[in-house]
Amino acid sequence: MVEVLADASLYEYTGGEAPSLEQLQRRYVAQVVGHSENHLQGWLNWIVRPINGGALMGFVQATLERKASELLANIAWVISPIHQGHGVASEATKAMALWLQFKGVNCLQAYVHPEHQASMGVARKQSLHPTNLTDGIEILWESWQASNDRSAFRFRSWLNGPVPFGVVSVDARPTKGARTWYSLGWQV
Fold first, then answer.
1. Any alpha helices (H) in the chain, and if so which ranges?
2. pLDDT at 145
3. Is the pLDDT at 166 greater than 90, yes or no?
4. How many CB atoms lie within 10 A of CB 58?
């Protein structure tokens, strides 16, 4: 992932800089725990790669939180610039979003920079809509689903379940666009 995240253009809208190998190792050690120290947030992460097992393309992730009786997922996607423009971010994010909704998530949210046209396109393809809320720079986009009474059980089982890192494979053929090869799941 060091090579995937090395391109400075990835940080044009989000700020920051490419992580070193050591920084990525520390980040992944913290993320594989699967939840915050107080267990109020769940963390899920998937690496995106092509079906043929070629070079890694990026990642999708979700931070889960309970708000009253609802289960929310703040989602994000990062795809290497060499793989952008072929629908990879949209397909990988859609696979994650469908998996999250199947598991009981009621609301998908994403913070998107108001000038980042590509990310706004990915958000729209997930049926997210811009709100009037911001974090000071980025706009909150969201989409609500009907409540699911079993979501509380599913949320707890995620936090106590297998290591929350997985792989989603996409078929990224420039002439046909990206297609998800298989649904997301745990990689233990």
1. 21-31, 88-102, 117-125, 151-159
2. 78
3. no
4. 23
Tens of pLDDT, residues 77-126: 999 999 999 999 999 999 899 889 888 899 999 999 999 999 999 999 99
Q: What angle do CA 78, 79, 84 make, to 5 degrees?
A: 135
CA nearest neighbour of 183 among 72, 81, 103: 103
Q: How far is it, in rounded angstroms, from Cα 148 to Cα 79?
A: 31
Tell me the per-residue pLDDT of 16-63, one tens digit each, with 9 for 90 and over: 999 999 999 998 888 888 888 898 999 999 999 887 778 899 999 999
Q: Which long-range contacts (CB under 8 A, 24 or more apart) does 173-180 make?
A: 173/86, 174/86, 177/86, 177/87, 177/91, 178/86, 178/87, 178/88, 178/90, 178/91, 178/92, 179/91, 180/91, 180/92, 180/94, 180/95
Phi, psi of 31 (to 5 degrees): -70, -35
What crossing angle do the helices spanning 117-125 and 88-102 adopt, rounded to 10°? Answer: 40
Structure tokens at 104: 């009981």
List, in sequence order, every beta strand (DSSP E) within the chain: 41-50, 58-67, 70-79, 107-112, 129-134, 139-144, 165-173, 177-180
CA distance 39 to 160: 10
